[in-house]
């Protein structure tokens, strides 16, 4: 079946097959007030186009409360509006600590595991 599109009389099957693919976004080293707007602008098309998005957070070196708000916004608002499953993985310990201080870590991880 490689190279051939499924007939249009099977749209649900087509949707199921595409939903198996998870698109990965490598977050980068900075998620702060200075980068949040440009990150959102860069990630928004992917969130609109993909069914499942995995955010690889392993490279984060700078993170602030604006970064936490961006993650929370993506997890809640973007997921609801675009029917997109979002998961954050490999969150560094210091970022986990920041999210925990803001009482956001459990919310992000709970929603991520529910949608995985």
Describe the structure.
- The chain has 116 residues and is of the alpha/beta class.
- Helix content is 52%, strand content 16%.
- The protein has helices at 11-18, 36-49, 65-82, 93-101, 105-115; strands at 23-26, 30-31, 52-56, 62-63, 85-89.
- Helix 3 runs parallel beside helix 5 (105-115).
- It is globular.
In a nutshell, what does this entry contain?
The protein has 116 residues and is of the alpha/beta class. It has helices at residues 11-18, 36-49, 65-82, 93-101, 105-115; strands spanning 23-26, 30-31, 52-56, 62-63, 85-89.
Tell how many strands the DSSP assignment holds. 5
What Rg is obtained from the alpha carbons, in whole angstroms?
16 Å
Mean pLDDT: 80
Task: Output the strand order for the largest sheet.
Answer: 1-3-5
Low-confidence stretches: 4-18
**What is the rounded distance between the termini?**
28 Å
The biggest sheet, with number of strands, parallel, antiparallel or mixed sense and barrel status, is: 3 strands, parallel
| Beta-strand fraction estimate | 15-25%
Which structural class fits the helix and strand makeup? alpha/beta
The best one-word shape is globular
The number of helices is: 5
The topology string of helices and strands comes to HEEHEEHEHH
Helix content: 40-55%
Question: Could you list some keywords that capture this structure?
Answer:
116 residues; alpha/beta; three-stranded parallel beta sheet; two-stranded parallel sheet; 5 helices; 5 strands
